Batch of 2 targets.
Target 1
Amino acid sequence: MKIFDHIPALIVAVPLLAAFLAPVVGRINKKAIGIFTLIALAISLIFTIILAFRVFSIGPQVYVFGEKFPSLTLPSGLKFPIRIIFQIDALGIFMGLITAVLSFLAAFYSLAFINKKDITYNYYSLLLLLTVSMFGMVLTGDIFNFFVFFEIASMSSVALICYRGTDFGEPAEAAFKYMVVSSISALMVLFAISIYYGQYDVLNIAALAKAIQYSQLDKIALGILLSVLAMKAGAVPMHMWTPDAYSEAPAPIAMILVAASQVSLYAIFRIVFTLYNIKLNTLTIGWIMIIFGVLSMFVGVTMAIIQKDIKRLIAYNAVSQTGYILLGVGVGLAVLTNPIALQRYGIVAIEGGIFQIINCAIYEGLLFLTAGALFFKTGTRNLDKMGGLAHYMKYTTIFFIIGVAAISGLPPFNGFASKLLIYESVYKFNPLLSIIAMVVSILTLASFIKVFNSAFLGPKLSQFKEVKEVPPSMILAMAVLSCIIIFFGLFPDLIVKNLVHPAVMSLIEQFKYTSTVLGGM
Amino acid sequence: MLGLLETGSGFWSAIVWVILILIIGSIVYYIRNKGEKSYKKNTNQDKPFISGNPETTKEGSHLNENHLYWGFMEALKSYYDPLVKIHTGDINDYSGWIVIITAIILIIVEVRG
Amino acid sequence: MIGNFPYITVMIYIGCGIYILMFQRNLIKLAIGLNLIENGMNLFLITLGYRKGGVAPIYTQAPVGPVMVLPTPQALTLTSIVIGVATSALILSMAMMIYKHYGSIDLDEVRRLRG
């Protein structure tokens, strides 16, 4: 069918159109706007799954905007592509699946959670814009297009963090800090892009990967991009905006912000593995990523144990889990030029890192949603004031237990599978890093046992006598995430063989990426 | 069908783990059920033993966040005090960290290729 | 050497912007600092497109002899200017909201989230 050729554009276009139609629908009927958003995001989810089947069976797909056929990249004898190209390989569609599922569940959860009647249509419109920007960042093959979507993401997430800012002051402060950090990050990304453009005159990632030589200016661009994108992803020591932003945002938005931070990690991997590949000194850059990873893991979890606010605790744990991803992929990058080591443990390390991306998104999402359920019913986020809620909210307790077991790496849930891959391969590279990773895992469990004891266990308190269970749409969203956790935990080999391994191979083999656009060497 | 995940140096199978837990759990449950069944409910045999001290109310005996992990934090005070002081919440410090880390990474990438 | 003058101006802009972000305490001054970095980036993009002795890149008046300056950085700069307008609007409205709830826009007072 003709429409299947245009799916990459439709994945971005349908939520964009819905974002601008949402206020109109909101004027007609206040309750319909949630359903309208849900339909638009469901269409995007279906298109993403169809595109995933295509990419995993046929190969990387391209989509050229404005040509006669969507795959005509080099029209009439030109040597480099001149239009904006969406290029989807296995890693791109992997991140696209995470985005699609998480934003659909966030919209489903928001049907019951968001109840301020006068600015509801703002919320749904911005949620759709945030989804559009995240899809655009992972599907695009053009580096300035990436910058534009990056800015759209930062603007919509700032406005969403400030959702309760009309009544309280703290969300406005958190949104201001996030805006400053995000703007510095985006402007420095623009600086690096203009360095590339000034030298090579191309903006397409595949053409740039073919033309790049590792000159002095390229080293400066690589250094700036590494540190600035690591800041946007929440790596220590530039992580201090993370607890403010994640705790003051509404709970479903915090879930999508975790996925947005992981898209910044995707950008680092795209630049280091696909743009430069073996032209840089992989041992140095690999060790830089490993140092970021280890610092993030350790500082994140030790700061998490002493927090009093439940969402700040989960946010510091999110920083710590990002460290695992950086550690795994850093070890794989450090041995990229050594084929024996790459075969023995390098590929397994990168597999562990990429599998950890999807696991982290899902269990962090579940934990944020349960924290949101607690806030929705008790009106407070402070652990001092909560107690004995397991008597009243039974389903929330079960989902919280599943989330805690997944994040601490307890078998048989999915956290254990990805952390096992990271532990075993990093041990062969350097045993000390693996031991630090295991200690961090135990401290993660310690911080969540504190939350469980303060909030859920204990006798029935009198101030919570009218607390009932949360509405069914919130329970359904949490239940879907729990089912995904259990499924990924029981059958990890299906996920690793079909989803993660093609993504890792598409990162390591750079020539497949360039030859799809430029048509052979 | 067994869900084997191959790491580089071994394998992990969650389904075998779950089956083993069910088998061992049922053996434990069987041994536990052979215990003492005769005790008198709602007498002193049922109440918790707190060394003869008077029992406070059920509500007053809940340990909330202030009391938990106090020993951990006191023991590591020399690590935690500088760490919490670094997290100031000040935007000038956030920009300062970015500039410092970018400078360090640029120097490392310049020197060691 | 005189041809490098725009690049030196870019460095001064970005340097001033980063200095303001690191050492000034007023929220409105931080928004101004962010705008200075933005202006530096736009100037950098435009300067990259210049070719020596070039004329304006208009398609219907394509010159036979002298070259045209590159039109692509001009499109990129327009995009960046629009993004800068939206960023400034959003960050100033955040500053207004902070003033409404905290009563002051000095960074020493606006520090309830820490630790």
Target 2
Amino acid sequence: MSVFTSQTRDLNFEMWRAKSYRVSQRSILIIIALIPAAAIVGLLIIPIWVSVRAETDAGVAFSVGAYRALLSDPFSYRTLFNTAIFSAVATLTALSFGVPSAWIVERTTLPRKGLVFTLMTSGLLIPGFLSAMGWVFLLHPRIGLVNAALGLVVAADWARINIATPAGMGLVQGLGLAPLAFIMTAATFRSANPELEEAAAVHGIGGARSLFHVTLPLALPGILAAAIYVLTIGLAAFEVPAVIGLSNRVFTFSTYLYSQVHPQEGAPRYDLAAAFGVFVMILSAILSWLYFRVLREGHRFAVVTGRSYRPRQVELTRGGVRMAWGFLGFYLVIGQLLPLLTLVWSSLLRYFQLPSAAAFANLSLVNYRGLPWPYLIDGLKNTAFLMASVSTVVLALSLAISWIVVRSKARGRFLLDAIAFLPHAVPGIIFALSAAYVALFILRDYVPIYGTVFLLLSVYVLERTSFGTRMLNNAIAQIHPELEEAGQVMGISLFRRIGTILAPLLIPACINGWLWIALLTYRELTIASLLVTPDNVTLPMVIWGLWQSGSFTRAAAAAAMGLAFMLPFVFLYWYFSRRFAPEGLKT
Amino acid sequence: MSKKGVFIFAALLSLGPQLSRAAEPAALAKLIAAAKAEKEFTLLGGGGTWGDADAQKLLENGFNKKYGLNVHIKFVPGPAMPDLARRIADEYKAGQKSASDMYLGSESHFVELTRSDALTRFNWREAFPNIPAPMVEMDGRLLREATRYIGVSYNRQAVQEKDLPRKLEDLLDPKWKGRIASTPYAASFDRLASIIGPEKTREFLKRFTQNVAGLIRCGEEERLASGEFVMLALNCGTYEAERAQRQGMPIGARILSDVPIVGYWYLSVPKHSAHPNMAALFAGYLLTPEGQKVRYDSIGATAHLIEGTPANKQYKDLKAQGIELKEFTADFVIKNGKKLGERRDEFQKILQQR
């Protein structure tokens, strides 16, 4: 028979209170994570509904006509084939430049590496459609600068490089996505534990073998995450296929979708577009499953533990420095500098001309003078607000989701992660259509958010949560749970463990994530194109509006101004990210 | 002229707008008064719709001067015409204010807007007696703003005058293979089918698409000027090429004598416009001689039914050449929307898929 004393009763009460407190904190975290997940599911149900909905004379009826039309059209299969080649080449290109660049910058003693970081980052500021235009004028079979030069050497047609192919477009897209692969894998390399490399060195395994047998396998989850991420971007990429492919009758899924949703004349085929969206959601589910398999193995790759965390860098010889700079320089010139120069060059011309005496004589600032300045400034203000707010909210929500997915044993956590990933793979245009529908027809009487910057904020947050969770899943997976377990044994509450143990270790990933979400927000166009009204215009929409009206050179001028506005921002955040990074992580 | 004469002349000039307004119809005076209460209005559209910053300033100044106003027109770079039409229709169904106080589009863009009954019926000729009756369509819901003569646009440096196509068949010449562009939306080919028949159009397109190197949108004259393509067939109106020419681009345009298609740009005021009176007044202004001049200087498009405009002169020239223009109005397109839509889908597929 047990004897209850007031002391044991107090102890039991304290234990109960502590337990219920822990449970409630976990519940709060789950609720925080479920809010965006529920919103995402809600928005994605709409395209499914639209894809099987048909308006008949008798009213609305169930129909699989859209799927039948999609699957019975041989053009769909050709488009699928083009998309597969395009995405594969884009992914390979992005990884080929992004991963080695990240390793060089984060794990070697390369001098002036901060410059590389800034240049890679600023590359993302160039809107994709203007880079694509630049590439058209570099590698167009008839007017491309490079092809014109090749023509002087070899007259035959086979010697021309044709950018207007799925592989050619993939190359351009991949060059644009290399900074993304760079930033996604940089955090992995930055946090890699050198002890295993040192152990390899002790056993006589040289630098190259150590790189391929130790360093790269350690970074595999990060690289695979980046590959899956880039691949899904390739599936839904719009700007490069629109500029290069559409005008040359090379369709990918996104441009096929665009042509259905944006007919210049006649009614849009939302049903076909929605059916396509559903199809991509299935592809996304498969990619998510692959990603989760990698993640499940994440503990084998844990590189930051409580016992030893001393990132060290590989000493480069003089020859190594030259090789590294040669590689980085090659990418920066073809991937960043050439499109940037083309952008500035075209902004000074009334219409695009190859460099010549006549073209130089025509250089002027007329495109800059003719810009819609009030709206450019309005757009800039809204864009700046969105960059700051979207990044912050996304990181907060992503931390909650990623902790549940990676650390907790909650049932359905992988489903939660799959849902968080969906907005990335579902074409933004589908997402935006759903959001517009919800804001216009469902929320209008309760939350009149349509036409405000808060609608953009909400949709951008949901869309970017996929990026935030990929980044934080990867970063949390690499931090061994023993640190938090030690905190739990000491009775530290969940929020305190996250705040005092996990969060400081995540600072580098969070700073990178914040910066990149801000930059991705700066570029966001597809969603904005459907949700922007006069009161919530964004900078990319001003540029896109100019491009859509055929004013390419004026759009280039607007983009150049946007670039000028944004460069100080990039430098500022690069400075702070370095300054506040923990000791040992600074480069 | 004496000092007294100079003074009287200056006084008359300054009184000009007031004197002319004294003779305004009562409906217009009422409209101006209502518009004054609205103070501002918003117009969404691309550069091809409302022009660049200079053009917008000209429009604003001209409008204010004409009616003695001090209005700020908020020109917002917006989506393409069909996207904006859909948005306005959706906003109307949802009970929201229209993003744009006025909509400007081609005859095809009004199918959904009229089906949704989202457009205001307005007695245009009561307020603006200068507007010819045929320019008002669909029971006052649509007002013709400009005439579009459909043809081909070309790079004058790349194509010699003697090589230019004169008839539709000339576009099938193998010399154009891999050099010319068409539109992804098969612009005006559904109208062509109404002239030469759907079967002939289908056969023509199957051969024509072999020559087509790529698809660009109307208004992308810069891509012709750069030499990426040497010609666009069919275009959305020869005025676009003429405007590009005035901007210093080596671009020209020509109407094909056997398919002289004519279309229009239309103005309309959505029922859910936040500033409907201002929008209606501005629409009327665009059809005054002053408004047409500003539109010509900025966009290049004018209305052929208004005497003295470039489109009016071009109309007379074409008539003098014995060319019988085939007009396609919004009324025709809306009434035949289903048939035209099906044809358009088919023709787009031929052009897009080769």
